[in-house]
Design a protein that fits this description.
Blueprint: E1 4-5, H1 13-18, E2 22-24, E3 29-32, H2 47-52, H3 59-62, E4 66-68, E5 71-73, H4 82-96, E6 101-113, E7 116-124, E8 130-138, H5 140-154, E9 163-173, E10 177-185, H6 187-207, E11 225-230, H7 235-249, E12 254-259, H8 267-285, E13 292-297, H9 302-305, H10 311-319, E14 324-328, H11 336-340, E15 343-345, H12 348-461, H13 465-470, E16 475-478, E17 496-500, E18 503-507
Parallel strand pairs: 8-10, 11-12, 11-13, 13-14, 14-15
Antiparallel strand pairs: 1-3, 2-3, 4-5, 6-7, 6-9, 7-8, 9-10, 16-17, 17-18
Length: 513
Amino acid sequence: MPNTYLTVPFKDKDAAKALGARWDAVQRQWFVPDGRDLTAFTLWLSPQSALALATPVASGDMALLKTSGSELAPSVGKGMSLSSLLAGVSNAVSQAYRMGVWTLVEVVELRTNGGHVFLGVSERDATGAVLAKTSAVIWQSTANGILPAFERDTGAQLAPGIKLLVRARPVFKPLHGFSLEIDAIDSEYTLGDLEARKREIRERLQAEGVFGNNRQLPDPWDYNHVLVIAPQGGAGLGDFQAEADRLQQHGVCQFTYVFSRFQGEGAARDMADALQLALLGWSDSHTAPPDAIAIIRGGGAVNDLAWLNDYDLARLICDSAIPVLTGIGHERDNTVLDEVAHTRFDTPSKVVAGLEQVVIQRVREASANFEQLMHRAAYDAQSMRASIAALDATVQAQARRHLARAVEVDTWMQGILEHMRRDIGQTRGMSDDALSAVATLAESHVRDGTIRSQALMREIAGQGPDKTLRRGFVLVRDQAGKPITRASATQVAKPIDIEFHDGTVTAVPSSQP
């Protein structure tokens, strides 16, 4: 027979170990070694193992039963009554489960009656398909003891959707059928399950590199228009609107409200759809996007707020280019939406108070800037008036000085003109005398030049070629008749003509000079 594995809560591990249970480090689970009596471990056995320990149905009843294969065969006579059969089943179940077994369940429905709490519980796989379901009850005497402690320790309340680790004893009653009687709830498991869900979403967003995107957006400089998503009629919404309406009435900031469910199956999807639809239609009536998106709801049980721990909704906020402000629950409450939002406020009222503080700050800055501007304008105006007066005085003084100087210059110019007129008269007389002398001298020089020129022309005319040749000179030409004036211009064996005064002789040079 193989080892029998147990479901041992952490708080019971020492007790299980003391009874002889051992720890399987690979499977990470306590087990009873093969061959050991399981009776002492009934509290932590699986239902199948517990049934194996069950005391058989009473021998008197079993005498009426015969088996053939896996089917029950009819007994001799009229057979067993239904009540006897169900009583046998009831007895078998009670013998198999003398004590409760720690069991994981998810609450799917809940109602109370006379202090008793009646539950519908189930188990679902990762796809949401139901694997098992049954009814359960917490009797009033037990509920009065365990429920206040559970709510105090977890901040959660029993409600559909919450997952629990309960100690439940299976019971079967002929008139009411099978159910579980719950006598204990492990608070640590519920807290761990809620935190594990947040941790899973947080780590996924961090791995995708988007976890801090919205927080890194710049703070809005001012708030003129805010889109608000909230559950309709909620107390938190009323607190928010009490202050928001006052801001809106004075034209300080406008608020557009979108309503959605905030808890229950599918609430996160409804919120995401409502928000996306509002943003898609925003451009139809607005020229600019909202300055911020506010997600608000009043306080509630931890498991009521747990519906907001949704990956798709958190990712929508991470991807938003608009800063998201959250005011969900109370100061002690925290959701994944608070972690990924641009700014987290403790309550809805603190969200609008935060908006108001920014608006007041901007008003104060505007007022201070206006006062500074007015002071500066008055100072500049006074300085300008003083500058204009000084400039006017300077212009007038300069004008007077220039006028006096102009009078002096005019007087001086009149003197200069008079002096120039006298000098011009004297210069004109002197010029006339000089011109007369120059004319006389020029005429003399012209006559002398004419006489000399005529003599020179006669001398030149008397110096013609014939006279030059008669004095013993000769004229040398080449065959073309061009005069040769240098010996180097002659060529060997090329005839030249030598003209004398009485005739021309042709000669042939025999060598170069």
